[in-house]
Amino acid sequence: MNPKVDIYVSKTQKWEEELKKLRTIVLDCQLTEELKWGVPCYTFQKSNIVLIHVFKEYCALLFFKGALLNDPNGILIQQTKNTQSGRQIRFTNVREIVELEPILKAYIYEAIEVEKAGLKVNFIKSTALIFPEEFQNKLDELPALKTAFTALTPGRQRAYVLYFSAPKQSKTRESRVEKCIQQILNGKGLND
User: Fold this and answer.
1) Thinking of the domain 3-116, which architecture would CATH place it in?
2) What dihedral angle (degrees, nearest 10) is formed by the CA atoms of 66, 21, 73, 121?
3) Are 61 and 110 in contact (CB under 8 A)?
4) Positive/negative CA dihedral, 94, 96, 97, 98
5) What are the extents of the domains in the chain?
6) pTM for the whole thing?
7) pLDDT of 179 higher than 90
8) Rounded to an integer, what distance in angstroms lies between the CA atom of residue 156 and that of residue 183?
9) pLDDT digits (tens, 9 = 90+) for 15-66
């Protein structure tokens, strides 16, 4: 048991009991416990297998290569449509974890076998970004904006385009673009 994880668990008041139970289950599978990205992460021969994280409405086990796991119980969840590899199992109380313990261990052992076999997730290359009309108009109107935007990393560009494209109303898309112009000109990403 890693003392850094002890501190993390004790500070996570809402989910403390659930985290303690998940931690016991994962450690029983002979994984190494670390604190990565500020959350408990469990590795096999220095490769990430699973982590435990909390959200407002649930806590979860996240399998790094969950897309490669069999899911006969239908409990693995793809967090977002853009998540290609990771899969979660979500919990809202300790009872759910206790009931699923043998199944959770089976999934963890399968994840270890996936790692031992050297299996890799075949990532789908992201398709070309489709700019909403409101953003394209601004890029055409302001050459400095276009230069600044193309200088951003592909991930930052994608985040902006997804953010600008999300609203159904043109007025809202325009408003989002306007609010982000200075941030783009400053070379910052959406969440920087």
Assistant:
1) Alpha-Beta Complex (3.90)
2) 0
3) no
4) positive
5) 3-116, 133-185
6) 0.67
7) yes
8) 11
9) 999 999 999 999 999 999 999 999 999 999 999 999 999 999 999 999 999 9
